[in-house]
Amino acid sequence: MKNLNQDSPTYKAALLAILCSVCGLLLSAVNAVTKPIIEENAVAAIKSTLEKIYPGAEFKDVSKEYVPDETGLVDGVYEAVGKGYIFTLHNNGYGGLYTFLIGYNNDGSVAGYAGLENMETPGKGSLAWDTDYTNQVLKLTSSDPLPLISGATITSKGVSQAADAARAIFNKINNIEYDPNAKPAEPEKEEQKPLGEEDLSAANATVKEISNDGKTAVYECTAKGFADGNAAKITVDIAAKKITAFEVTKFADDGDGVGDEAADEANLKRYIGASASDIIDNLSGATMTSKAFRAMAQAALNAASGDVKPAADYSKYNAVCYYRSNTDPKATVFDCRADGFGIINKMGEGYTQNRVYVTVNTEEKKVVKVEAVNFGDTKDKGDKAFTDEALKRFEGADSASKADVITDATFTDESVKAMVQAALDMAAGK
User: Fold this and answer.
1) By CB distance 3.0 to 4.6 Å, which of 9, 38, 359, 360 could disulfide with 369?
2) What SS3 class is residue 233?
3) 254 vs 286: CA distance, rounded Å
């Protein structure tokens, strides 16, 4: 028998083929042993979550067959043997990435729905996983897109979009015909009232009169939408009690695609000519910002009608407060200081800051007591606003401007009011 030349190309090729064949057999054997273990471990990692929908079911991870999908929103697909399928999904909302799951029974009915992780705003985007919304989803089928939520449009649109990706896969698996272009149900519109009757207190609107010639008044207003700090300059015809100009001076909700529509020129025109008896509708997809703008319009109209006193400007008194004590869970004592007549008018070293202790009821956000600590203004004049009797006028007030004016002591009077208002603002978290 002729010996093979081990250096020949033929010998080396044959040997390589044998080695590859053996390795392939070994890998197949290893894979046959490890694949079920890997799949079992993958299911075990999420089994407690899956069992929220199908307690005690046998689960199979079938993600490799369907992920990634065209949308890229499906993270995992799990079969509950003999029962249905569960999908883990994600999308981006106002607060960033969120994840959730939805399950469908084999007959197409929704078996379960739950949030996993989210950073959405409580009471806004978080509504997409609250009980009320979950109960709506549980009444649906794989033929139905998930509905939108008023006040959480951005988040609920993303949830509905991700669920659409799950519906597409599930319906294909079960040969269920449906309309993939069906639109999610719009949220029911709130029954809106005229501007003068709406409860817009959540927007914390403020109003300050900056000019008034007897015919028209101009107000600087602020209000909270998704963020604090939305501001507008609003002009009101005093006799007609109608808005004649609405200029946004600061848009705190800008730049993230949420609420931006509310500040568009076309939408701002809705306020021109509006009175307290007019209704200005919410903007779908900009509910919170729309409410903030209406709150500013309401505040300006109220101020022009004399229904509310415009917020006083105490900024020149440089008031500042510090926490002194809060041993009482219902009341906090603030140590407050502010400039007075002498410092503001640079009268010399004989003048110091006025100082008081202000106790505020932290539940009602009202003044309980004001105590004199240091009087740094002109004696026998400004001290009229610093007596125990004068300080009692603040008791029960939720705004310093509501206290009576002390005549012949204007600077000290307003210096004390600046400190009281600073304490109230601090108690309110402003």
Assistant:
1) 359
2) strand
3) 11
Q: Two tokens at 372?
A: 């004199």
Cα 330 from chain centroid (whole Å): 27
**Share of residues in the chain with pLDDT > 90 (%):** 54
pLDDT digits (tens, 9 = 90+) for 240-269: 999 999 999 999 876 555 567 888 888 899
Q: Which of 115, 106, 108 is nearest to 158 (CA)?
A: 115
pLDDT above 70 (res 283): yes
- Helix or strand run (H / E) with residue 422: helix 410-427
What is the per-residue pLDDT across 187-240, written as a single tens digit (0 to 9) for each? 766 677 899 888 888 788 889 999 999 899 999 999 888 777 899 999 999 999
Given strand 354-361, what is the order of strands in its sheet? 320-325, 331-338, 354-361, 366-374
Q: Which band of pLDDT confidence, cut at 50, 70 and 90, is reported for residue 34?
A: very low
Give exposure, 294-319, as e/b (b: 16+ Cβ within 10 Å).
Answer: bbbbbbbbbbbeeeeebbbebeebeb
| 137 contacts 156 by C-beta, under 8 angstroms | no
Taking the C-alpha atoms of residue 174 and residue 155, their distance in angstroms, rounded to an integer, is 29
Which residues 6+ apart lie within 8 Å of 87 measured at CB? Answer: 74, 76, 77, 78, 101, 102, 103, 165, 166, 169, 170
Burial class (CB in 10 A: 0-12, 13-18, 19+), 185: middle
pLDDT over 50 at 6, yes or no: yes
Q: What is the largest CA-CA distance in the chain?
A: 132
**Sign of the CA dihedral with 107 first, then 108, 113, and 117 last:** positive
| Helical segments of 89-238, H only | 131-137, 153-173
Beta-carbon contacts of 392 under 8 Å, excluding residues fewer than 6 positions away, are 370
Residue 291 makes CB contacts below 8 A (sequence gap 6+) with 200, 202, 203, 225, 282
Buried b (16+ CB within 10 A) or exposed e, 384-422: ebbeeebbebbeebebbbebeebeebebbbbbbbbbbbb
CB 228 within 8 A of CB 326: no
**What six digits make up the tokens of 150?**
């008023």
What residues does each domain of the chain span? 1-42, 59-173, 201-305, 315-427
Exposure of 45 by Cβ count < 10 A (0-12 exposed, 13-18 middle, 19+ buried)?
exposed
**Mean pLDDT of the chain, nearest integer:** 86
Bridge pairing between strands 206-212 and 110-117: unpaired
